[in-house]
Amino acid sequence: MIDFKNVSKVYDNGTKALNNVNIHIDKGEFVFVVGASGAGKSTFLKLMMREEVPSSGTITIKDYNLGEMKKRKIPYFRRNLGIVFQDFRLIPNMTVYDNVAFAMRVVGAREKDIRKRVPYVINIVGLSQKARNYPNELSGGEQQRVALARALVNNADIIIADEPTGNVDPQMSLEIVELLKRLNETGTTVIMVTHAHNLVRMFDNRVIVLDGGSVVADGAIEEEGIPVHQSSHLNIEVKEQKTENKITQKFVSVPKEEPEQKPVEEEPDTDFLNAIISDTDTYRIYVEDDSTESSAAAEKTEGGDAE
Length: 307
Prior knowledge:
Structural class: alpha/beta
Radius of gyration: 22 Å
Number of strands: 14
């Protein structure tokens, strides 16, 4: 459904936003996209929404070649997308009902269909009792639900959620992701860009990690671990808040039968610091090169054989 093949993006000012990105997303997948500021997440989304075109490579979404698409076809292509933004982008002088209905009116839907579809979608997001309220009468979480309803109302095949939990509290963040999960279970493809890595850890979904414009990890956080990309694996280290101890959970591609290795406390070296993607009081996410580990293991094995 979505294919990035050797995609690079360099802006006119010389900024290299993406570098040789190759990503395939199947219909019905739920994918988290994570990475630090400047990693290339925003450019990745802009390319998918056809706000930008790649400097090289090809992007195909539902048989549309975005690089070769003529401007007059862009609005028709975007009808396949439902987009949810961090800042909600609701129209303040419209009610919940009219904010959602607006998305149907701009594509020329009949009022008869609008009157049938809009209440249904508002009910899906749990706001039937707030249909006549205005955005300033809603909480942040409720406003984000309106934005989600607006993204759904035209029955889009793909939901693109850009930091949808950025302006809501942790409980509402969880509810929004759960709602996106339920939509995904009906066959809707969901791509969620987020800095909330604690949420990512709570769901067994594919995770694409961008760093410096490149894909440094791509896989699902599962019991078996996250599949490697270019000899790297994704580490998510969760820190305890009130003690000096640390809980470290590593998602690596190793066979199940291998004994679990206990984490060893040590001072990170320069290479480690350069590999950090995100570091907060709650968690640290970094990319670790597997090649050194593998070489060390090989040397140990050879030494044992020699003896």
